[in-house]
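Slack export, channel: ligand-projects

TW: morning all. Re-posting the request from yesterday since it got buried. We need the structure predicted with the small molecule present, not the apo form. The ligand is zinc ion; the SMILES is in the block with the sequence. No rush, but it would help planning for next week.
GE: picking it up
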Amino acid sequence: MRLLRLLNDTVFPPRCPVCEQIVTPPGRGICAACLPRVPFVAEPRCL
Ligand SMILES: [Zn+2]
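GE: finished. pasting the full token output, ligand included:
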């Protein structure tokens, strides 16, 4: 439901789990500042 998601993103904007900053653009999960710090999350590798 698109309207519900829009409302949810407005009230609870996606935040970086590392620094708690609002992530822009939304949908990335981690902000650009913290991305280099967590390569294991940003780059899942096949063993
Ligand atoms: Zn961050």
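GE: first-pass observations. The chain has a mean pLDDT of 76. The longest helix spans residues 2-11.
TW: perfect, thank you
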